[in-house]
Structure formats: structure tokens, C-alpha cells
Amino acid sequence: MPIPDYQTLMLPLLRALARDGSPKEYRLKDLVLLLAETFGLTEEERNALLPSGSPVFADRVGWARTYLKKAGLLESPRPGWVRITPLGLEVLRENPKGIDNAFLMRFEGFRAFWEGSRRPRTPRTRGWPEEQGALLSPEEALERAYAALKEKVLEDLLERVKEASPAFFERLVVELLVRMGYGGSFPEAAQATRPSGDGGIDGIIKEDRLGLEAIYIQAKRWDRPVGRPEVQSFVGALQAYRARKGVFMTTSTFTREAKEYAERVDGRIVLVDGRQLAELMFEHNVGVSVAATYCVKRVDGDFFLEE
Q: What is the pLDDT of residues 43-73, one digit of tens each?
């Protein structure tokens, strides 16, 4: 039988997570093996690879997991592990015949993900790609697929960062700032970002290789939102150093009060939340690598012009 697509895998994956009758953590790689047995895949089908080198079936299970997570039907308590949510159990009690993208559109989290992972739709491309595939040009389909792939990578990046140690997070911040052009070389930046000893400052890095300006850093590997008190403490520390520029990075989010306060203070304070952090890591190739490259070419009309 052909290898099932990721939408076909959604309901079996959800059922596999609920097979013990209560929410329990399972390793995703164990679920891949279980589902391969459920669908009776041959050894050849299990080992089939994408052009990027990733196993086809495991990749599709991973996409099923991502979409179900966006809908809130399962969660990832830690990297590589998944667990069904109360909402997921509620869906199973409905005894659906299947779960696909259209089914998941009833959930706000999935709708936000779906709309955010693609460009605004024109009237001609309105609808689901599975239903309106004939209306999408190959380039539109490619752009949509790239946006979805990027969204998944950003989510996985932030998940891994949140699970890292505080020391690793500090090194990550240094690496990211260097890739963005600050601090000179990595050894120079690592030396410059040593803790200052002030409660509101985690490190100091040069804005340029000559060290004409310094940027003060605060990094919080948190799950809960960063509020105004933390930002205010950071601003106070900057004033103590007579510093004009500061970057506050967190793996979580900033409250509205924290953002409003940062905008009002005298000085240049940049707040970088978890989503922005993942975006910057993606853009500057920190923690990611190129899996495959597709070069889209067109006929060069000028080449065929004759005098």
C-alpha cells in the first residue's frame, strides 16, 4: 500500500496517544514505529527517503503531530515527546471518521497557524489546497509549502531553546548577536558578554568591531511572560551604567505593560520575544542547517531576442 499522507495519519496518531485511556507521554519515534505497524508498511516503505535525506513516513508523522498540536489536540511536554490534551480526548469521544485540515479549522489555534503560514489569498486561490489544487500555480504551491515548513522549524527551534540550560541559552544569544554583526568574532563577543554582576544586566557586547558603542543584554529563558518590573529593572541598570542601548531577550513573551514602558523610556531598548528570537535564528542560520535547495528557473526571453 502507498505510504499514508500526513492527514490520513492524524486520527491514528491521536488514537495511539489515547490508547491507555488517559493522557500519557510517548516518544514520537516510538509512535512512528507503532503507526508503521498499524498501516502494515514494508521495510522498504519505512526506509523510503525524501530528497533531503529524511525518512518519508517519519516526516509525515511529524507533520501530523505539528498540525494536531497547532489545533491544541496534543502537546509536547519536552522535545521528542507528545501527549494528548483534554481537547484531543474530547475530539476522540466524537468518534470522527477522520481528521484533516478542514476538520482542524474549527479550532482557533489551527486557523491562526494556517492563515499565518501563507500569503493573503486571492479570490482564485481561495479554499483548501487539497480541494482547489488545480487553481494554484506550481509557484504558489511552492511558496505555501515553504511558509508552512518555516513555521514548523520556528516552532521546533523555540521548543528546543526552552529546554536548553541557562548556560546554553547565553551562548546562543552570543552566537546570534555575532551572526547579526555585533561583537566582532565569537571569542571577542564571549569575553565581552561575561556577566556584569548587576542584577539587571546579563552581559555587555560591542556594537561594532571597534567597540565605539556598547549594547547591554538581559536574557530570560522563561515560560511565563516578562512583565514591566523586569523591564524596569533592566532600564534602571542601564541608567546606572549610563548606557544608551539595551536588548532584552526572552523565550516567552512580554506583557502589554512591559512593551508600553519600553517605548516610553529615554533610550533605545529593544525587546525580543520567543517568536522574534526564533525568526532571527532562522534568518541568521543559528541552530538550523539547509536540508535541501530548490532552484526555480524561468526562460530568459532576452536571450532569444535576435537583431
A: 999 999 887 778 899 999 999 999 999 999 9
Residues 91, 21, 62, 107, Cα dihedral to 10°: 20
Counting as low any pLDDT under 70, the low residues of the chain are 1, 116-137, 140, 185-186, 188-200, 208-212, 267, 307
